[in-house]
Amino acid sequence: MMRAPSSDLPLVIDEVSLDAGATRLLDRVSLTIAPGAPTLIIGPNGAGKTSLLRLCMGLVRPTAGRVTWGGRADCAPERRAMVFQRPVMLRRSTAANVGYALAQAGVARAERAARGAELLARVGLSDLAGRSARRLSGGEQQRLALARALARQPEILLLDEPTASLDPAASRAVEEIVLMAAQSGIKIVMASHDLGQVRRLAADVVFMLRGSVHEQRAASDFLERPSTPEAQAFLRGDLVI
Question: C-alpha distances in angstroms, 100 versus 69, 95, 116, 216?
Fold first, then answer.
């Protein structure tokens, strides 16, 4: 009898610190990420958002503290995928980039063409299947990166400011794909510094500053009634460092 795959959720970060040499990137962070609608990690540049996402993916090990996925530590990232702010495109076509991701995810060769076409349609790139991925626009590359991540059929999708360098139309296209993924049951954990994005996408918010979590609350509560002076200043648009 086949066992149902165990879940990576909840993702629990318990008193985690992360150092890079003499620099402390994360300082005693405790956080629980549960199934459900998107969680947005917000804060100024240098707050620790990317480090936290890399920790959630399992790309770095904590200097202190513990990370567990569904109650398990040292869990292979088979059910997690991450899209970086500037994704690297393979030197091949748009379709072949997705085909490579499907192969890495263990999809049988006979199924890859149909699955790849489905993924490209999902992100609106069917017409560009034959184009070199490195010749796509920034927004198209980010949509391709999302298609490659979705090829893994992840339970958790980690996104590091995926719209940071995009114009409003390209940002909207990426957000629509993210919302569709969330509606399909994928847990979205996304770093952003865009408060408009928080209003449009977030169910709950993790507010970070100087490597620490200052607040984790429902997005509506955070936006209307931030509980720390630093969060109030961030929402006003003041410089917070």
Answer: 26, 9, 10, 37
86 backbone dihedrals φ, ψ, rounded to 5°: -125, 85
Looking at this protein, which amino acid is placed at residue 136? Answer: L
**In this structure, what token pair is assigned to residue 170?**
């390209």
- CA within 13 Å, CB half, 82: 18
**Domains of the chain and any CATH numbers:** 11-89+156-236 (3.40.50.300)
Task: Return the structure tokens found at 83.
Answer: 């899209």
Q: What is the pLDDT of residues 62-93, one digit of tens each?
A: 999 999 999 999 788 889 999 999 899 999 99
**DSSP for residue 179:** H
Mean pLDDT of 185-207: 95
Q: Among candidates 15, 65, 44, 10, which has minimal Cα distance to 207?
A: 44
What pLDDT, on a 0 to 100 scale, did the predictor assign at position 94? 98
Neighbours of 34 (CB within 10 A): 11
CA distance 193 to 197: 8
Beta carbons of 124 and 155 less than 8 angstroms apart: no
The structure's pTM equals 0.94
**Token representation of residue 227:** 């509980």
- Contact between 88 and 162 (Cβ < 8 Å): no
